[in-house]
Each structure stands twice: as C-alpha cells, then as structure tokens.
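FORM 7B: Structural annotation worksheet

SECTION A. Query
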Amino acid sequence: MDSDAYDTERGPSPIPPGDREEGPRSVFSDSSAGTAGPEPAANPAAGPEVPEPSEREKPGRFFTWRALLGLCVICVVFALLVSHFVMQPFLVPSGSMEPTLNIGDRVLVDKLAYRFGAAPRRGDVVVFDGTGSFVDEPPHPNPVVSLVRGTAAALGLAGPSDTDYVKRVVGVGGDHVVCCTASGRVEVNGRAVTEPYVEPGDAPSSVPFDIVVPDGTLFVLGDHRSDSADSRDHLGDPGGGMVPVGKVIGRAQWIGWPLGHWASVRHGGTAFAHVPPAGGAHG
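SECTION B. Predicted structure
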C-alpha cells in the first residue's frame, strides 16, 4: 500500500492540547466543580458605575438638617410676628411692681387689649413706652445692636428697652387724684381707694400730690410704692409724669415664667369700682 495515498485520505491531525480552545462548560459541570461561573459582562447602556454615597453625603440626611433649619427660621419669624402684633413677653427688670410682679418674671402683654376702641382703665397693669414722659428721647443706637437686642427682647430672652415700663393705672383722663387723705389713702374723684395690691408695709405714697389727669393720658404708680419711680417722680417735668394713652404697648395678662409663678396678673379694677367718673374719664 502507498503511504502517501494513506496520508492524503487521513483526517486532519489533532490540535495540540495547549492550543485547543476550551468549549463552553455546562451548568451542571460548573456546579459540580464547586466554582462560580464567569462574571456577567458590564452593560454598556447602563453607564458608568456610580459609587455609593457616604453616610454624610446621603440626600436624606442633608434634607433633614435643611428642613430642621428651615423649621427653626419659620418658628422664629412666627414668634416675632405674634410678639409684634398680638402677645409680647416682657421681662420684669425691677421690684417696683412687687408683690404683683417679681424681678425676673416674664409677663405676657396683650397688645390687642386696647386696639379696638377700648382704653386703659383704673387698676390695669400696663406696659408702656416712657419716652417723652419718664425719659427723654434716647440717642439712636447702633442699628445692628438695636436689631439684635430688640429681637431678643421680643422673644423674652433679654430685658426690655430702657424706655419701657410696667406700672398700674391709678388715674385716667379727667380724674382728680390726691394723696394722701386723712385716712392715709389715695383718693380719686373724692373717693378714698383701698389698694390690696400695694406691697405690705408700704404707705400709699410718701410724696404728697394733688393733680388732675389731662385727657388722653394716664397717672401710673408702682405697687411697691417705696421702690418705684413712677408718675410721682416726674410731676415737675414737661408733661407732669402723665403717660399718653398712645404710648401704651399693652395690658399685662399672664405671668408666663417661671412656671412656679404662672398666674394671671392681678388687676385692681374692683378697688376703683365705687369711684365716680370725671369729665373724660373711663371708669
């Protein structure tokens, strides 16, 4: 037999094992071998892989802090609006209104009490701006300092302006107020007044006076008469120590702080219940 003819009819020589391409493996063979299959190829349409954000960079946490800050701002703005138009906290800076109000008490002042035709009455505890009656016009302070202090005072976090006072109304426009009568009491329009709110042991006044309150003004005294700078101290000043009704900020309604002093402010309207009216008086 011809050897060349035999080689021509014979099939191709086998590929060496090292150069042979490995065919696909079956699922069964992979699982039986205990090895993981090939990793899936990346999908070009999915775009580049985005790294997982850190805990600080997560949108939820950022939104929480931003929402909290926004809520705080809204609360402060709301409190300032309420304080400006409706109810303002007032920090009592002195003992001139003891025992009704103590040093450090925060009083809630109703700014709507006299907004709709009502006027301060005898016995009311009022907060007012004493500019022009108790003190001269103050110099203009630094606007930034004034804004910060005004905001803190409006929120009850700081003392009031140096021109703001809290006192009790004893006489209104047209009243004839005298101290002291033979009984040792304040007399209004010829009627002696018993004042249960005055500091125990204090005389109604150590300073005698006999005045007629001009219309549109108020004659005010502190309950702690021996420790109060009030209308008596300005009788000889321009305006005679009378407070214009338009300077009244509001009526002290409640003691809001400290919690142990929480109570409504004791007004003295009943002490003046039998006082007859005078020309232009509201009684």
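SECTION C. Observations
Confidence is low (pLDDT under 50) at residues 1-36. The radius of gyration is 43 Å.

SECTION D. Sign-off
Analyst initials: ____
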